[in-house]
Design a protein that fits this description.
Layout: H1 2-20, E1 25-35, H2 41-61, H3 64-69, H4 71-77, E2 86-97, E3 100-110, H5 111-120, E4 140-150, E5 153-156, H6 169-178, E6 181-184, H7 203-212, E7 217-225, E8 229-230, E9 237-249, E10 254-266, H8 270-286
Parallel strand pairs: 4-6, 4-7
Antiparallel strand pairs: 1-3, 2-3, 4-5, 7-9, 8-9, 9-10
Helix pairs in contact: 6-8
Length: 327
C-alpha cells in the first residue's frame, strides 16, 4: 500500500507540474522546397520549413554571439531534430514550380521544450523578459483579449466560453514577447465576447479583466472574417479580414497605440484563412507597439587631400566648419 501511495503521489506531482508549465508556443511562417520528382518531396519540403521555423525560434531565445559560438551544436541537436519542437503546423500554400515542390507553412514551435534542451546543452538563453532589440523599454506584463468573429461563430480568449487556441493569438503573443512584454493568461470570467464592433471590449471592461489577470497592459484585439466571395478573374473564392488592435496601460488608463488593417485571403481553406488572420493581426500590431529608439552610428572623419580641383570660369570658396547653413 505504501508503494502504491508513493506512485500515486508521484503521478499527481507530475500532472501538477505539467499543468503548471507556462506555455510558450509561437507561430512562425517558413518556406520549404524539394525536388518534385522525389518520392518524399512533400516530407522533405516540410522538414526544411520546420528547420527554418526552429531557427527563427532560436533567434528569439539566444543572443547572436551565443548562436555563432554554438552553431554546430544547434545545427546537430536542435535543427537536426526540428520535428521534436513542433506542436502543430498548417500548410498555407502548396505548388510545383520549375520541378520544385514548394510549401509555405505556419509552424507552431514549443519554445519551452527548446529551452529545456538548450539548458541540457549548457547553451545560454535570454532571461525571461529580455528584449531581443537594444534600447527596449523595461518589461511589463500584458494580457491578450482577442475575439475572432467568423460566419460560423465567435471565438475569444476571455469571458464565457473562452478558448485556449484562437486564430491570431500565437502571432499576437509572439509580437508582444518580442517587444519585451511578459504574457499573462486572460481570465475566463466576464461576459461572452460580442460578435460585432471593431473591438470586442471598451477600455473600462478591458482594464477590469487586466486587473484580474494582474497585468500592467491590456491588448484588445478584434478580428472580423467575412463570408467567402468569388474573386474576379480567378477561379477561387476570397475572404475579407479586418483586424483592429489596441494597447492600453491599465495604471494610467491611457492608450499606448491603436492600429487597423484590412486584408484578404485567396482561398477558403482554414489554414489559408488562419495565415491571413495572423498577417492582419501582425500588421495592425506593428502600428501599436512602441518602436525602440535607433542610435545612429558615429560618422567617420574624413582624412586626406580635400583640395578642390580648379575649373576655368568657376570660383571656389572655402568656408569654415562653423559657418551657419543659412549664411
Amino acid at each position: 500500500m505504501k508503494i502504491l501511495a508513493i506512485v500515486i503521489a508521484a503521478a499527481v506531482l507530475v500532472g501538477t507540474s505539467a499543468g503548471a508549465r507556462a506555455e510558450d508556443v509561437v507561430a512562425y511562417q517558413a518556406d520549404g522546397d524539394a525536388d518534385a520528382g522525389a518520392a518524399g518531396a512533400r516530407v522533405e519540403a516540410l522538414d526544411e520549413a520546420f528547420g527554418k521555423a526552429v531557427a527563427q525560434a532560436l533567434s528569439d531565445l539566444i543572443d547572436p554571439d551565443v548562436r555563432k559560438q554554438s552553431k554546430s551544436v544547434l545545427d546537430r541537436e536542435l535543427l537536426g531534430h526540428a520535428r521534436l519542437w513542433i506542436t502543430k503546423f498548417t500548410v498555407t500554400k502548396e505548388a510545383v514550380t520549375d520541378d520544385r515542390k514548394q510549401l509555405s507553412v505556419s509552424v507552431r514551435v514549443d519554445r519551452d521544450k527548446v529551452r529545456v534542451r538548450l539548458g541540457e546543452l549548457n547553451i545560454a538563453i535570454r532571461a525571461a523578459g529580455d528584449a531581443p532589440a537594444p534600447n527596449a523599454p523595461p518589461a511589463q506584463t500584458v494580457t491578450v483579449l482577442l475575439r475572432v468573429a467568423t460566419p460560423d461563430g465567435v471565438h475569444a480568449t476571455y469571458g464565457l466560453g473562452a478558448e485556449k487556441e484562437v486564430a491570431g493569438l500565437a502571432a499576437l503573443s509572439g509580437a508582444l514577447r518580442r517587444a519585451n512584454f511578459v504574457l499573462k493568461r486572460a481570465p475566463g470570467s466576464g461576459p461572452a465576447a460580442k460578435p460585432d464592433g471593431e473591438l470586442p471590449l471598451d477600455d473600462d471592461l478591458a482594464e477590469a479583466l487586466a486587473a484580474e489577470a494582474k497585468a500592467d497592459v491590456v491588448a484588445i484585439a478584434g478580428v472580423t472574417v467575412g463570408a467567402p466571395v468569388p474573386l474576379r478573374g480567378v477561379d477561387a473564392s476570397g475572404v475579407l479580414i479586418t483586424a483592429h488592435v489596441r494597447l492600453v496601460d491599465r495604471k494610467t488608463h491611457k492608450a499606448i497605440g491603436q492600429g487597423a488593417v484590412v486584408t484578404a485571403s485567396r482561398g477558403t481553406d482554414p489554414g489559408v484563412v488562419g495565415y491571413a488572420i495572423d498577417r492582419a493581426v501582425l500588421a495592425a500590431t506593428a502600428d501599436v507597439l512602441p518602436q525602440p529608439a535607433e542610435k545612429l552610428a558615429q560618422a567617420q572623419a574624413f582624412s586626406g587631400d580635400d583640395k578642390p580641383i580648379g575649373e576655368p570660369g568657376i570660383v571656389l570658396v572655402r568656408l569654415a566648419r562653423s559657418t551657419p547653413l543659412a549664411a
